[in-house]
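Table 4 source record.
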Amino acid sequence: MTIIPIYQKQQLIFEQFLEQYPEDGRFELVNGEIVRVQATRQHDDVADFLAKQLDKEVDRLSLNYKVSGRIAIATLTKDGQEQGRFPDVSVISLDIWRNNRAAYSALREPLQVVVEVVSTNWEDDYIDKLDEYQRLGIFEYWIVDYLAIGSRVYLGKPKVPTVFVYQLDDKGIYQPTAYRGSERIISPTFPELHLTVEQILSV
C-alpha cells in the first residue's frame, strides 16, 4: 500500500523566499524552507565592527564597493538546490549594485567579499556556506570564529579564536589562510587593511 500525504510542504525557490520574507527578523532559505537566523548581541557587535572597518577602507581609498549587512544572495548546493543566504557582512561591486536599484536587496551575482561570524551552528559556515560561496564564485570569504567553537580539525588544539580568509585560486577553489592573536589579517580585496583577531575580540 502506498501512503500519499494529504499535505506536503512546498519547497520554495529564491524568488518565493523573497516574496514571503517575514518582516520581523532575519531569515535564510535552507533546503526549501524559510528559517530564522538568530544571533547574540555579541555576534551582532562583531559583525557591525567588521562592516565598519571595511566601509572605512572603501571610503578612505574611494573603492568601487558597497558594504552592507542587509543583502540576501542566491546560492546552490552541490545537489543543485537553491538556497537563500544572508551574510553577516557583504562587499559588492557598486556597478552590480546600481545595475537595478529598484530591485530588492537580493542578488544572484557573486559578491567580492562575504563575512560570516560563527555561531553555535558552526558547520553551516565551515562546510555548507563555504561550498555554496565557492560554487557561486565569491572571491573572498571570511569565517570569523571569535568564540573558537568550530571543530579542532579547523582550529587545532588547543582551540583559539581564529579568522580564516578564503580566496579563490585560478581554478575557482578556495585557499584558506588562518589568522590568530596579533597577526594582521591579510585581505586580498583590502590589502591596506590593518586589523587583527585581538581587535575583533576586544569589541
